[in-house]
Amino acid sequence: MSDIRMVIGGLFLVYGVILVVAGALGSAINLWTGLAMAVFGGAFVAWARVRRL
Q1: Nearest to residue 12, comparing CAs of 28, 47, 26, 27?
Q2: Which positions, given as ranges, span the membrane (predicted)?
């Protein structure tokens, strides 16, 4: 079960970083959405690493 959390969290993290880069180059909505997704993805990965089943 923790493997799927790592994958989902990693995808959120990667896509959030992509949006942050796109937001830094243009639209502010991409920046804020990317930051939120990166934080959510990082929390998801941390949760999966701390709570291994």
Answers
A1: 47
A2: 7-25, 31-50
Strand spans (E) along the chain: none
Nearest alpha-carbon partner for 32 in 44, 22, 47: 22
d(Cα 13, Cα 30) in Å, to the nearest integer? 14
- Segment 12-48, tens digit of pLDDT: 999 999 999 999 998 888 899 999 999 999 999 998 8
Whole-angstrom distance, CA of residue 48 vs CA of residue 33: 22
**Encoded tokens for 13:** 């993290």
Output the pTM of the full model.
0.81
Q: Which two tokens stand for residue 27?
A: 């639209």
How far is the C-alpha of 31 from the C-alpha of 24, rounded, in Å?
6
